[in-house]
Amino acid sequence: MLLHFQRHPSVTPASYPQIQAPIVTNPAFWERLGSDTLSTDMLFFAFYYQQNSYQQYLAAKELKKQSWRFHRKYNTWFQRHVEPQVTTDEYERGSYVYFDFHLADDGNGWCQRIKNDFTFEYNFLEDELSVQPN
Questions:
Q1: Full DSSP string of 53-76
Q2: How confident is the model at residue 106, as a pLDDT?
Q3: CA end-to-end distance (rounded Å), the chain
Q4: For the segment 53-102, what is each residue's pLDDT rounded down to a tens digit?
Q5: Alpha-carbon separation of residue 130 from 14, 29, 42, 55, 103 (angstroms)
Q6: Contact yes or no for 62/43 (Cβ under 8 A)
Q7: Which domains does the chain show, CATH number per domain?
Q8: Which of 7, 88, 108, 124 has the maximum number of C-beta atoms within 10 A of its C-beta?
């Protein structure tokens, strides 16, 4: 489930923390975030910007608890908006909320959107989380 997005490091003042806070490796911290739906954006941020890290794994785990499902073809998280209109062994079709992680110059993006009449093919469903210990 790990994606490869380019990091954008920047120079920060010496007064800014230069090392990661130990709490971000504590699963209980991520569970608290996952229990607050207002923190969902933070989980998405960790997933997309903490690539190949234990934090990405913990964020994905909490998103899955909130019924988000990762679509490997689109590298995007989806959640059922309503029950699917069609369900087969290979796919389901219906309305889904998806997380638009693109940061567009026009200010659109990094938000949840609704996709109607979407076919979610199960072969693109990421079902396993890769555990990456800290």
A1: SHHHHHHHHHHHHTT-EEETTTTE
A2: 73
A3: 17
A4: 899 999 999 999 999 999 999 999 999 999 999 999 999 999 999 999 98
A5: 34, 19, 20, 11, 26
A6: yes
A7: 1-6+22-66 (no CATH), 68-129 (2.30.30.1020)
A8: 124
